[in-house]
Design a protein that fits this description.
binds biotinyl-5-AMP, 272 residues, 7 helices, alpha+beta, BirA Bifunctional Protein, domain 2, single chain, 8-stranded mixed beta sheet, 13 strands, SH3 type barrels, 5-stranded antiparallel beta sheet
Length: 272
């Protein structure tokens, strides 16, 4: 794997943050064949979109983001030197309608990577969150880009060494970091290596075995099913019990009226 840099200042700063040896020794098949490290970008997702004509497998990481994004134009709080802000470019040769499960695959890869760095069990929350002790430690933003060939940008944010003061008053109630949960700092470079390795493996599994396989694996790492939830989509609030993921990666809930409802996107909140 090759690490390149955009300018000398970024390179020096980044290399003092990431000592680079472990990243250099990565052996990957799809994702992480090339890694670009920045000190600061607006958003790693936006940065990687400048490279849509490249082969898949490019990864961009940044030490901070000034305009980190969540879904629907929301912000992703990205303080310097504490979190992981990573985007990967993939161009799977599959129909674009099969792209949404890539978010599930990215979440699965992230939860697998986090397991080795968290004292408490990290759980997936459909469709794109990872929670530790009911607080959000990671979020995924996948974006479909271009059409010749179609590509997907996988954006992953992980709260690693944030102290409570790093979070706004609102986020203090809903967000957490590995440091806050474990009581000790985590080596971000080791976690990045694990994350890229897991992404590469799970993406390979997705290409080989399809969405059903990913949905089954995903199901093993969530505590969502059986819980009372609300799901908001398109301004409509649905209330019911989360039942399962279908083979296509859709969430099935049983509404309070006993009706089976399937969703491929939405905002889930646990009730009670
Ligand atoms: C997400 O959106 O959770 C997707 C986050 C993806 C961030 C990565 S970082 C690398 C790449 N580059 C980007 O620009 N983005 C990706 P969503 O489900 O919409 O959640 C956003 C909501 O999470 C916000 O409205 C806040 O309530 C909350 N939030 C913001 N920053 C947070 C943080 N650092 N930790 C926990 N929660 C946060």
């Amino acid at each position: 794997m090759v690490i390149i840099r955009q300018n000398l200042l970024d390179f020096v700063l980044i290399m003092s943050q990431f000592n680079n040896q472990k990243l250099k020794n990565l052996e990957v098949k799809f994702i992480g064949k090339r890694v670009i490290a920045f000190n600061e970008v607006k958003s790693t997702n936006d940065e990687i979109k400048k490279h849509l004509n490249e082969d898949e497998g490019l990864v961009i990481i940044a030490n901070s983001q000034t305009q980190g994004r969540g879904r629907l134009g929301r912000d992703w709080h990205s303080p310097k030197g504490t979190g992981i802000y990573l985007s990967a470019l993939v161009c799977p040769k599959i129909k674009p309608e099969l792209f949404p499960p890539i978010t599930l695959a990215a979440g699965l890869a992230t939860v697998l990577a986090l397991q080795n760095f968290s004292k408490s069990i990290p759980y997936l929350k459909w469709p794109n969150d990872i929670l530790i002790n009911d607080k959000k430690v990671s979020g995924i933003l996948c974006e479909l880009c271009g059409d010749a060939p179609p590509s997907v940008v996988i954006g992953i944010g992980i709260n690693v060494n944030q102290q409570i003061e790093h979070f706004s008053e609102t986020l203090k109630n809903t967000a957490t970091s590995l440091l806050l949960e474990n009581g000790t700092e985590v080596d971000r470079e080791e976690l990045i290596v694990s994350l890229i390795t897991c992404l590469d493996k799970v993406y390979g599994d997705f290409l080989k075995n399809g969405t059903k396989f990913i949905a089954e694996q995903w199901t093993r790492h969530t505590n969502l099913f059986g819980k009372k939830i609300t799901l908001v989509r398109g301004g409509v609030v649905y209330t019911g019990t989360a039942l399962r993921l279908t083979e296509e990666g859709k969430l099935e809930i049983i509404s309070n009226e006993g009706e089976s409802l399937l969703f491929d996107s939405g905002e889930v909140a646990y009730i009670g």
